[in-house]
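Entry:
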Amino acid sequence: MAEVSPSVQQHFTLTRRYFLGLGAAGIAGLNASAFSAQGDEEPSVSFHRPLRPELEEAIAKLEYLTREENFRNAGRGTPPPHTLPPEKLREAGLHRDTWQLEVVADSGGEAGEVAAVGQGGAAKIENPLSKELGTALDFAGLMKLAEKHAVRFMSVMTCTNGRQPFGMGLWEGVPLREVIWLACPVANVRRVHYYGYHNDDPKQKFQSSLPMDRVLEEPPGGLPVILAYKLNNEWLTAKRGGPVRMLVPDLYGNKSVKWLQKIILSNNYHITDTYATWNNDTESHIKTCARFIAVPKTAKAGQPIAITGVAQVGISGLSKVQYCLEAAAGDKGGGKAGRRAQEGRDGPVDAADTAAVEWRDAVILPPPEHWGGGLPNGKLPDVPLQIDPKTGKPRQWPFPNSIVHWAALLEGLTAGRYEIACRTIDARGYAQPMPRPYLKSGHNAIERVPLVVEG
């Protein structure tokens, strides 16, 4: 049996419960005869055969939170730092025993050619955390801060140009502001620049940045930027960016730099993110969008057909997930719904693309009883910020900056070739890919998959 993708592994515990609720007609068609996980392509699942023991076994292991080993990885570096042998990891400061973090003022070269802009002058700090001065923050010092300031929250890790999330995690760390205050910034700090280990090769440096205000304070109901050292209540592995990485919960993954080792406080307003030089909008908040997880390639006419998926919930929230079914125009398809967005063209979708399409509401699944992710008995540790400590229930559902699963059942289809599309309606009523349809600021094209119904 081919490898099951992380999205599927996060998904089936909830969807199986939903289809069981539909009764025998719904669950009788549920079968995964073939999984494929190649790049960004979604798995292909046939539902028309009897339920296989292999799928029953897989369903028993499937979870909402992504296990560390199942996160999709966007590695970088030659070689990727996490592949270094243990002695090299220690030497490079990529072990808890040897890790150090510097927090310094911009010298005029690292965070940009212009360190000071305007009348204010260069950034000023009173207590630089520096290896040269012997004042750099080590892991023991971070844990001392954690005794008072540690926070936990659930957040999706997703890429600006990725078609589906890398994984959903429970992260633990110390708010970045607590470390910034250790350096005692005095004046002229507009941006916080940072980067991680990069094999001591300037060409491999991956740098990102944030406005100082976002570091010091989050918007109402928002989550803090943290120095993360745990994922799903376990120490962060080198493969996930450990021992310490940046975690920016409301922005795409390019802001959550791995193998963090240096922070530069600067008065330079220029955007110097590596990802910006690669033709991306690095300031975009995570977008709300829907993706398929399990859709049959083929099905029998008249038989109920289960379709399931995942929705990424961004800053604009989520009110609905919808799907539509169209007769394909020719062997390669040709329906209009979402065609413009699916082909990767920037800009608003033409009204003609969706006006004649009947969109139907899918079911958004509730919070899981067992959160998974390798947590003992699937129980959350005390107390993630999104959970009400009095009731143990989510403060809202779905969480912003998260995922949620959805499901629907197609019935009464006649023989033919079809295309199925899915989309979200955000909390303000905007249908995907609006209100931000431009691909440079996050991939949210409407996804379409083929379906053949056999007589």
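The chain has a mean pLDDT of 82.
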